[in-house]
Amino acid sequence: MKKSATLASISLLALAFAALIESMKLPFGSVSAPAAGFFPLVLSVLLALTSLLGFVAALRQREASLVEEQSLTWKKILLTLGALLVFALAFERVGYLVATFLFIIFLLRVVERKSWGLTLGVGLSAAIISYVIFGLLLGTPLPAGFLHI
Question: Which among 12, 24, 28, 107 is placed 20 to 30 Å from 76, CA to CA?
């Protein structure tokens, strides 16, 4: 586990540096008027920082202190892919808020078997916060669906 975490963080760090180099070839713009290179540059820096944190955590980790891994089953993978397909198909008809809320609810309650309180709280928060960020702050047109919300 320690070796794979170290290798994964090094691989992601290399990917982040490659993306950073390529994004620097694009015009950056400014925070108020971002150009084509703004988001790739910001995301590559965030990926590099996350990779460095993962690398340091992997180096500090002792083999005996590793948390037992939860096995990823084919059932969970297929349920998640199915939910993603339904989300993509229902996105326009149902609307962004409702589709996102139901998608998160399904993933947390059915796939991960979390409590209803956590599931509803995270589902509602994720739908509203992502709507505020993308729909209101960034001005991304999001489908309203049949409820017109």
Answer: 12
